[in-house]
């Protein structure tokens, strides 16, 4: 796992498939983990915190942007190590708890070999479920980053969420948006459950004010994020009229 500083308060944790983010609030001495990587990532995340001079127990909450295994696989392990609260949207929380199966993506044909390769690189094994998941919904404000607003962005999954930190101009998109591994361009996320809803969610995120955009896959944008998201969203056609 690679640890990359994006801002003094913000670190990217990069796994063989996907990535997570650590946000730090120095006034309270507490951290927030956005997504938790694949199965087995809990201990490496704890070690990364130690290397940054923080205790795993400084992490107050783990916010999961959706239920896919490359985002939730390390949640139970890290929650056990840190005693952090696990949060997810109310529509994805039952899947994360193991109460319901997660619906599979509706693949475009070109996505199938990419998904197969990503699945091959994920650690094998049954997912470990968190003991509890606190459910959140659109518009709720979480107590970190000067007030982190939950933005419901369905399409990738029914309960996908983003987090917007207006006080710092930071947006965590989950897999609603991605960056190309080829040229870093901003893209609609892949492997969606409902592409039409995913495009609408992309447009919603593009309308938010943000300098920094942190994706579930691909290099973050560290300047002019709103403009770049808006330009990419425009390529999917005009918004529907009433």
Beta-strand content bin: 25-35%
What structural category do the secondary elements indicate? alpha/beta
Report strand order across the widest sheet.
1-2-3-4-5-6-7
Low-confidence runs of at least 5 consecutive residues: 237-242
Question: What's the total number of strands?
Answer: 14
What global shape is seen? Answer: globular
Put the structure in a nutshell.
This protein is an alpha/beta fold and 242 residues long. It is built from seven helices and 14 strands.
Structural description of this entry:
Residues 237-242 have low confidence and may be disordered. The chain is globular, with a radius of gyration of 17 Å. The termini are far apart. It is built from seven helices and 14 strands. With 242 residues, it is an alpha/beta fold. The strands form three sheets. Strands 1-2-3-4-5-6-7 form a seven-stranded mixed sheet. Helix 1 (42-51) crosses helix 3 and helix 6 (195-206) packs antiparallel against helix 7 (225-234). Helices cover 24% and strands 26% of the residues.
């Amino acid at each position: 796992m690679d640890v990359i500083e994006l801002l003094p308060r913000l670190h990217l944790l990069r796994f063989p498939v996907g990535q997570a983010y650590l946000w730090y609030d120095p006034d309270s001495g507490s951290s927030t983990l956005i997504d938790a990587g694949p199965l087995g990532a809990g201990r490496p995340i704890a070690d990364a915190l130690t290397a940054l001079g923080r205790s795993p127990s400084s992490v107050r909450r783990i916010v999961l942007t959706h239920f896919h295994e490359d985002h939730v696989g390390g949640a139970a392990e890290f929650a056990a190590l840190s005693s952090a609260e696990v949060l997810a949207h109310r529509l994805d929380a039952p899947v994360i708890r193991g109460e319901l199966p997660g619906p599979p993506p509706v693949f475009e044909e070109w996505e199938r070999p990419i998904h197969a390769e990503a699945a091959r690189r994920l650690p094998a094994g049954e997912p470990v479920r968190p003991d509890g998941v606190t459910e959140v919904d659109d518009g709720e404000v979480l107590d970190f980053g000067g007030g982190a607003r939950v933005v419901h962005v369905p399409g990738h999954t029914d309960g996908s969420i983003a987090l917007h930190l207006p006080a710092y101009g930071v947006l965590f998109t989950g897999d609603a948006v991605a960056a190309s591994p080829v040229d870093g361009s901003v893209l609609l996320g892949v492997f969606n459950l409902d592409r039409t809803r995913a495009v609408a969610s992309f447009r919603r995120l593009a309308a938010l004010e943000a300098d920094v955009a942190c994706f579930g896959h691909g290099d973050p944008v560290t300047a002019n994020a709103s403009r770049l998201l808006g330009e990419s969203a425009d390529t999917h056609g005009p918004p529907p009229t009433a």
